[in-house]
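Thread: Newbie trying to understand structure tokens

Hi all, I'm a second-year student working on a class project, and my supervisor (Dr. K.) asked me to get a predicted structure for one chain before our next meeting. I've only ever worked with sequences, so writing a 3D structure as a token string is new to me. If someone could post the tokens and maybe explain what I'm looking at, I'd be very grateful. Here's the chain:
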Amino acid sequence: MVLDLQYQKFRKIVIMNIEVKVTASAKSNSFKKENGIYYIRISAKAIDGKANKAIIDFLSSELNLKKKDVEILKGEKSSKKLISLNIDEDKLESYFSK
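---
Reply by user tm_fold:
Sure, no problem. This is what the structure looks like when written as tokens:
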């Protein structure tokens, strides 16, 4: 009896939850890390969820992720947010070493 085994490669899924301090209504968008703390400056105003949507759009674009791979878990109405990213830690850290 011959067994025909098929293997499928699945994309490695890595979920990172990071705490972020957000400044809305900034002059420009930026994402940085200082002393182990993540900061996002976003130009959108914090009205009707516009800043939250802009954060997702900005992070997905900057980190080359799909929008579904960026999610605000906590702090939708706060400047301190918990954000979930489907990204490998090395890839995230390489973003800051540019």
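A couple of things are worth pointing out once you decode it. The chain has one domain: 19-96. The first helix runs from residue 50 to 62. Feel free to ask follow-ups in this thread.
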